[in-house]
Amino acid sequence: MDRKTKNVPFSILKVNDLDLGIDEILSSDSLFIADESWRFNDVNATYWVKLDFIDELDTLGTQESWRLRTLNYSKASMYYQKDGHIEHRTFGHFNKIEKNKSLVHLQGVSFKKQYLIDQRYLYLKVEVVEPYSRAPRFEYLSEKANRFYTDYYTDNDLNKVIMDHVYLGACLIFFLTFLIIFSYTKKAEFLCYALYIFFSAFFLVRFFFPEYQSFIGSLFGYWSVVVSQILINFFYVLFAMYYLNTKKTYPKLHMAMQAIVVLLLLLILLYTYSFYSGEYTISNVTLDLQRLLMTLFGIFSMSYLLFKAKDRLAIFIVTGSFIYMTGALLYMFTVRKYYMIIGSTLEIIIFSLALAYKIKQEYEAKLILQQEVSMKETNTLRAQMNPHFIFNSLNSIQHLILKDDKLSALKYLSKFGKIVRNVLESSHEVLVTLTEEIELLRSYLELESLRFDNSFEYTIHIDEELDTDQVEIPLMLIQPLVENAIIHGLAGKKEGNRTLSLRFEKKDDFCVIEIEDNGIGRHATGITKTHGKSRGMQITEKRLNMLHMPNGKKNTMEIIDKYDSESHPSGTKIIIRIVSNP
Q1: How many Å apart are CA 348 and CA 319, to the nearest integer?
Q2: What pLDDT does residue 336 have?
Q3: How many Cβ atoms are within 10 Å of 30's Cβ, its own excluded?
Q4: What's the DSSP call for residue 35?
Q5: Secondary structure of residue 304 in the 3-state scheme
Q6: CA angle 525, 529, 533 (to 5 degrees)
Q7: CA separation for the pair 562, 274 (Å, rounded)
Q8: 554 CB contacts (<8 Å, ≥6 apart)?
Q9: What is the chain's alpha carbon radius of gyration, rounded to the nearest angstrom?
Q10: 138-142 and 46-52: which strand pairing?
Q11: Which residue spans within 518-580 are E strands per DSSP?
Q12: Sequence-distant (≥ 6) Cβ neighbours of residue 538 within 8 angstroms
């Protein structure tokens, strides 16, 4: 692919009179200086460039039309001769007429051999709104050869385009991701980081899309791109403030960050005023001040966090900030934006991990808080049952005393004291082993059997495959259900034997507990006609639901009303399924 261009010798005249016309320039021809050390770094001056084609006349005669290629200057015009008159054509950054096809290379400006003034020269008028550190360069090639710049891409061009597009695509994904997370969480750090990514992409890939090129070809478009540099730092600082919760964890750093945020806003206002007023010296000083301010603040804040870090969140910030600042400084000194793209990409990856880590931290903290609340609520529910049990037991002792059955009363009181002692000793425990729970049930059943003159029989069956020392349940979970079976089911039965059976079995991943009686059933007691479940059953079911179970499995309680062959109530069966410990 032939992309060979020919350099054109040039000389430059710098003038401070912006209104100086081409006629005055032509009359000052001797003042032009041929010096390759020239830099267009004075935003208050106008640079006139004289291109000398004296040695290129034979080459220019071989083609009808040619293309002049230069750097992308802010405002540029080419002065040429046509039909005996001096005319000009604008082609600078803010004066784009021809639509550019290439995403990498500029279109340039066309000219013909007969356009040469004095059959030798072309004159360019160049104005800049920001200093150019690169040496001026002026080349030409045929219109046909220029198509290899505007219509085709070399491997080097593709590498540039691909890198920018990959970066933009990654930024788009992360931007939308954090925006969606913000919409759900309403946490400001996600919004600030999403906007930081947006302005980073907007600033770094602005020249590689035709829509961007047409947009930034206006004063507003150029202003918005430049201001995005400041907005990058603005949202970055806000993100760090919310991410680290500096107001609480680093109050001194928080005050400094607040001051930086205010200063950045003031710099945006100052730059906007000076830029639209044509005071380009002030606008460029504003940008330099912003770069210096953020560099010094970055060094200070990273050093502060390294020495004062209270958790890993600060390490994420320091690491990401260091990589980003390194890329930004390399870009500033080398004018190669790919350093900043690489730094920004690595920084985005690090901060994405940082935000994920913070989400994990907050989730774990929330889980611990929920567990603490659950423990307190469990203790509250258990406290609601213990007085109920104690009150019934004392009533039973009082009943025996009134019957003048002192021996039974003493036995009952002794067993009652043993149970109360066990309960009080376990009062600080939320969970107990099934072995401990069964022992409490044995003591309780002995008490109730004694209270009702051994008027009912009870059995406790424990499956051999069930390791009761490995299963944990809330203390006195089963007792209210056993109490209901005795008082509401068996005590009201007038005829026949009265039986109560407790079975503890291992089925798959569950410990299955069955409480079955042959009493009068729930319909006879009126429970189903009121709230469907007794107070004890409601509390027991709630305590089951509050237990945190692995793999999303749930504890359940099922109540079965039993009937005989003639459809008469014949008792109640309660089945509790508790997920065994993994």
Answers
A1: 11
A2: 76
A3: 6
A4: -
A5: helix
A6: 75
A7: 89
A8: 545, 579
A9: 43
A10: unpaired
A11: 556-563, 569-579
A12: 531
